[in-house]
């Protein structure tokens, strides 16, 4: 009977919805965008409020890949011409200088994350040049957390050692799946032996946290090949595992996500069973669930942050620490000053031209209203801690009655508990947390999107 109820609830709540790496979500940003001067003022404000104590974060987008993975929804540029590296690094450093020139003192950098694309497309020499260039105008915070994404096929010992020597202590390897049929469909072919070698090298060098990214819901996936993928994963004992739901959004990302027949994708309950199976296998291997989509060993500081309720979520995903200011460098990067968001140009050529003209290369953004800031905190609380409260005067919402009315069915279905001044998502209902956040999403409630813009919530 329990399985039948679970299936019915999944079918009921499996609807298109945001992943809430921000609020407001990008489709609901102000259509007028944000003026560069307005954005700059919010950067200065956030910096002055937080640099001395908590420092700032940097996200650097490295867009190049040598081949196209057909599951990928990231902003990327496919090329085998590594001559593009130099100009791109030069432009990132010029953009960083534009930000530094806004500030009264040297930034204290707490977090750096290199994402992509494929950061390990870039040579060790160029990675070193970029990071050293950043710190010509910055200092290291007393607590640092530097990480990068890596493709097992093209990551070298020299790259690992160079970044480790520069202060990077975390890396995440994009695994996705070990099954040959699945790998062929998504154009991501890499052997277990390749992953084992590069994982071992990272641990030998001294990386304190190695993460593996796995995706469920890919074409041709089933319980048997997911078991094999997870067995191979836990054999290597990564400190963290990101177990993402494949977001099939070809109407947004175009031809890249149409590299296979949609009938090959596991559907609805079949897909959810893959998640439940994976979760159970991770639990049996000693991992604990963190936020949404993530698992960690109790020894990892992401787990400690969860226990201490210090987990944070932003455009980099879940992080073990919070900074008010996160500056995004590089093509398509999104910056967050807490009071506003700004996204860089999405085409490499436009990005380079704007920076070379001495401009911050922003093409859209959003200045948060007072109401946005309150809703944002509630959604952060839910995504990170599975609970939120409006007891504090600063977190009160005029719309709380309507919000709770939208959650009545979820309460009746036993997924959440609502009290006089707070709400709790049951641990067993973690998979529905995006649906709970949607009830708090006032901009979503005000305007139904035209057409499909979000992946399914479950």
Q: Note the main sheet.
A: 9 strands, mixed
What is the radius of gyration? 21 Å
Q: Span between N and C termini?
A: 21 Å
User: Low-confidence parts, pLDDT < 50 over ≥5 residues?
Assistant: 1-5
* CATH fold label of the largest domain: pyruvate-formate lyase- activating enzyme
Global structural class: alpha/beta
Number of strands: 19
So what's the overall shape?
globular
Proportion in β-strands: 15-25%
Tally of discrete structural domains: 2
Output the CATH class name of the largest domain. Answer: Alpha Beta
- Which second-level CATH architecture of the largest domain applies? Alpha-Beta Horseshoe
The main sheet orders its strands as 9-10-8-7-6-5-4-1-13
- Estimate the mean pLDDT confidence: 92
Number of helices: 17
Amount of helix? 25-40%
Concise account of the structure shown:
The protein is α/β, with parallel strands linked by helices.
Topology:
Blueprint: H1 2-13, H2 36-50, E1 56-62, E2 64-65, E3 77-78, H3 84-100, E4 108-116, H4 124-134, E5 139-150, H5 157-165, E6 168-176, H6 180-186, H7 192-205, E7 209-216, H8 223-236, E8 240-245, H9 250-253, H10 268-284, E9 288-290, E10 294-296, H11 301-307, E11 312-314, E12 317-319, E13 326-329, E14 334-336, E15 340-344, H12 348-356, E16 362-367, H13 370-385, E17 387-389, H14 400-406, H15 408-412, E18 416-418, E19 422-425, H16 433-440, H17 442-446
């Amino acid at each position: 009977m329990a399985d039948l109820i679970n299936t019915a609830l999944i079918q009921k709540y499996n609807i298109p919805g945001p992943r809430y790496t921000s609020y407001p979500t990008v489709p609901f940003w102000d259509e007028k965008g944000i003026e560069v001067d307005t954005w700059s003022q919010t950067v200065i404000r956030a910096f002055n409020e937080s640099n001395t104590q908590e420092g700032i974060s940097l996200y650097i987008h490295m867009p190049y890949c040598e081949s196209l993975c057909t599951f990928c929804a990231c902003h990327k540029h496919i090329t085998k011409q590594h001559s593009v590296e130099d100009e791109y690094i030069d432009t990132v450093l010029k953009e960083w200088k534009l930000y530094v020139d806004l500030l009264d003192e040297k930034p204290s950098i707490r977090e750096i994350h290199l994402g992509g694309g494929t950061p390990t497309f870039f040579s060790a020499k160029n990675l070193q040049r970029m990071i050293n260039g950043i710190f010509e105008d910055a200092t290291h915070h007393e607590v640092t957390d530097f990480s990068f994404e890596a493709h097992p096929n093209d990551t070298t010992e020299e790259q690992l050692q160079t970044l480790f020597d520069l202060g990077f202590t975390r890396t995440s390897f994009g695994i996705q799946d070990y099954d040959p049929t699945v790998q062929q469909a998504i154009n991501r072919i890499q052997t277990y032996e390749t992953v084992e070698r590069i994982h071992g090298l990272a641990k030998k060098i001294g990386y304190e946290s190695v993460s593996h990214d796995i995706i469920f819901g890919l074409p041709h996936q089933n319980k048997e090949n997911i078991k094999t993928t997870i067995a191979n994963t836990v054999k290597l004992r990564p400190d963290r595992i990101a177990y993402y739901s494949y977001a099939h959004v070809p109407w947004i990302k175009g031809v890249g996500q149409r590299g296979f027949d949609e009938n090959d994708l596991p559907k609805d309950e079949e897909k959810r069973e893959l998640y439940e199976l994976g979760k159970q296998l991770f639990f049996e291997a000693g991992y604990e669930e963190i936020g949404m989509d993530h698992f960690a060993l109790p020894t990892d500081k992401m787990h400690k942050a969860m226990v201490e309720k210090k987990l944070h979520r932003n455009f980099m995903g879940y992080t073990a620490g919070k900074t008010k200011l996160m500056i995004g460098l590089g093509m398509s990067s999104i910056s967050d000053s807490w009071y506003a968001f700004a996204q860089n140009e999405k085409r490499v050529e436009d990005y380079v031209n704007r920076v070379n003209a001495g401009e911050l290369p922003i093409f859209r953004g959003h200045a948060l209203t007072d109401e946005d800031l309150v809703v944002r905190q509630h959604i952060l609380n839910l995504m990170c801690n599975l609970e939120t409260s409006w007891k504090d005067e600063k977190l009160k919402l005029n719309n709380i009655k309507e919000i709770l009315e939208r959650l009545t069915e979820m309460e009746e279905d036993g997924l959440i508990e609502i009290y006089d001044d707070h709400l709790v998502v049951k641990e067993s209902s973690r998979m529905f947390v995006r649906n709970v956040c949607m009830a708090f999403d006032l901009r979503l409630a005000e305007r139904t999107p035209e057409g499909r813009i979000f992946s399914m919530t479950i």
